[in-house]
Amino acid sequence: MKVGTAQIDITPKPGVELSGFAARTQPSTGVLDPLYAKALYLADGGEPVLCIHCDLVGLDREIVLEFRDWARDWLGLAASQVMVSATHTHSGPCTIHLHECGRYDPAYVTLLQAGLREAAEVAATHTEDCEVVTTEGHLDLAVDRRQQASKHTDPRVAALGLRRKDGSFKAVVVNYPMHPVALGSRNRQVSADMPGQAARRLSRQLPGNPTVLVTNGACGNLNPPAENVPFAQIEAWGGRIAEAVATRLAQTTPTPRACFRVAARIFPLPLDALDVAGIEAFARKALLDQNSLAEWGDKYRRAVEQWRSSLVAAAQAGRASDRRDAELFALRLGEVILLGANAEVFSEFTDWLRVGTDQKVYVVGYANGDMGYLPTQAAYGEGGYEVEVAHLFYGGFRPKAGGLELLAREAKDLLRQIAQ
């Protein structure tokens, strides 16, 4: 298999606003560790695939679409051959629109697009022959932050290595589901959080100093054990992610002639759309939420008002949609399938996809955009931030209950397509 990689620094200058926390005081004041865009280009006789993974909270859908247009014109890649994902670090610049969680930064996005293009060109034009090795470790680190009856965690740590004939590694993809929020809202410095530290540790441990992409999994309900911790704790937790697979990767034999396939699907996901009266009523109820008011104060009030006014205007103009594009992107290497989803999906999703298949399926969250949370149907009955509040910050209608289950059905059909 032909493999190309690149790693481009996308660290913003201090003074940018950071995304992910409404409770944070803005702007940023410094840099704890650098942010990167890491490209992985794969080709094995058939259609190639380009994956770029960024140390960012997420990617606005327009960023992905613009980059795919460039990749089509300059690299000859179809949209279905390009996946752009994010770690979901809550200590990076604002590259998605989250009300009162830092201002979206068009100037930074322009610099980001240049970085994505540079990474893509380098990876696509400098390839080496590599073999595929895969392994799975176990790590009981993430916790279900909701602590409801439906609580669920996923201890699997996946690792997919691209290894040269001399035994050195050119690239590694790691997957572990856990929100990178350990530095917390008190932190005002740029950081890649735990994924950045895991990538750094694993790259140093493995021969060849490989480019390491630490992707996030189905982690909509999963957090680290604590927030607002010192950077030394981030280093330790990132190290545990790396240690869960480092020895296994170094000792694993290659997959003989690994099956290489890619497939993508976009379909309309139903939203819990409201008419003008329903929007007004939901906003009035939201402003009575004492827990949210206590945590975010005026920022929460402004987020609710922005949500209300923008959706009322859209409804009155006939522009309010009851659907939103959900995208699934499946990459198969041997018996491992990485499935990208443009949402914050709950952790049970991965278990559902593994039922009835011999393939090891891992979800890559925040891939090709981020539409917000997709909770389980059970979670809708339990309520909570992800169900009742988060969509106010995202600025749109929440998905209808059963949306995650619908996504799972579509995903299973896509997995069957590339399993043949």
Characterization of this structure:
- The chain has 420 residues and is an alpha/beta fold.
- The chain folds into two domains: 2-263 and 325-364, no CATH class; 264-324 and 366-419, no CATH class.
- Helix content is 35%, strand content 25%.
- It has twelve helices and 19 strands.
- The strands form six sheets. It has a five-stranded mixed sheet, covered by helices on one side. The chain has a four-stranded mixed sheet with strand order 7-9-10-12. Strands 14-15-16-18 form a four-stranded mixed sheet, with helices on one face.
- The longest helix is centred in the middle third of the chain and has 21 residues, at 231-251.
Give the overall shape.
globular
How would a crystallographer describe the biggest sheet? 5 strands, mixed
The total tally of domains equals 2
Distance between the ends: 20 Å
Task: Give the number of helices.
Answer: 12
Global structural class: alpha/beta
Low-confidence stretches: none
Strand content: 25-35%
Keywords:
420 residues, single chain, alpha/beta, 2 domains, 35% helix, globular, five-stranded mixed beta sheet, 19 strands
What can be said about this structure in brief?
The chain has twelve helices and 19 strands.
Tell me the layout of helices and strands:
Blueprint: E1 2-9, E2 30-31, E3 36-43, E4 49-54, H1 61-75, E5 82-86, H2 106-125, E6 127-129, E7 131-138, E8 143-144, E9 156-163, E10 169-176, E11 189-190, H3 193-205, E12 211-216, E13 222-223, H4 231-251, E14 260-270, H5 276-286, H6 290-296, H7 298-316, E15 323-333, E16 336-341, E17 344-345, H8 348-354, E18 360-364, E19 373-374, H9 377-382, H10 385-388, H11 390-394, H12 403-419
Parallel strand pairs: 2-11, 4-5, 10-12, 16-18, 17-19
Antiparallel strand pairs: 1-3, 1-6, 3-4, 7-9, 8-13, 9-10, 14-15, 15-16
Helix pairs in contact: 1-2, 3-4, 5-7, 6-7
